[in-house]
Amino acid sequence: MTESSSVTWRIEDGLVDYPAAVQFMEQRVAEIRAGTAPETVWLLEHPPLYTAGTSARAEDLLAPDRFPVFASGRGGQFTYHGPGQRVAYVMLDLKARGGAGGGDIRRFVRDLEEWVIRTLARFNVTAERREGRVGIWVVGPGGREDKIGAIGIRVRHWVSYHGISINLEPDLSHFAGIVPCGISESAASPYGVTSLAKLGQMVSMPELDMALQGAFAEVFGG
Predict the structure, then answer these.
(1) One-character DSSP codes across 161-219
(2) Host H or E run for residue 9
(3) For the segment 28-49, what is each residue's pLDDT rounded down to a tens digit?
(4) Strands 185-186 and 128-130
(5) Chain segment 60-85, per-residue pLDDT in tens
(6) 25 flagged as catalytic
(7) Catalytic one among 56, 181, 211, 212?
(8) Angle at the Cα of 9 from the Cα atoms of 98 and 208, rounded to 5 degrees
């Protein structure tokens, strides 16, 4: 665990069960609101699982028996988490921070997007937002747009939790059990899912963590 300005960073070496992660986040949100714990960014990996956001549609869960499925209070639809994907849970006091913390949740989401974009830029990956599509996208060979990062947050009493994920080197076939974030990979839909490894970037998890910390300081100021 390290500290940067007012933010504590927790970095897990092993896999963290999803229910345990949610329990920790909810406790930390309450502590931040009470002023008894610092803002926290938690970097971890989960075992293979699917989560359903508040906008998830039952028909988008294509393989309900493949991995455990958890209802999530975050925004968004279905997403996959698993080994090789870095999840960053972001517990920040938005009111105390001003700016995005002044009540502008859309700006906070854009700041999270910018964090992912700047992180990936450190590995010479050009990642972009797309109007009407949640997450962070890259243009692959042939011009196809693939999703490399997901964003889903929840805010309670102006303290954020849940956060972002970046595909470092997960098993991309695991995404086939869902329609990730409502985006299907089919003849009718030219969008897919990618990773740093698939893009030819051989990046270690510690290197990705360092990039996340550096980009976070640029966007959020520590």
Answers:
(1) EEEEEEESS--GGGGGGB-GGG--EETTEE-EE--TTTTT----HHHHHHHHHHHHHHH
(2) strand 7-15
(3) 999 999 999 999 999 999 999 9
(4) unpaired
(5) 899 999 999 998 888 788 899 999 99
(6) no
(7) 181
(8) 105
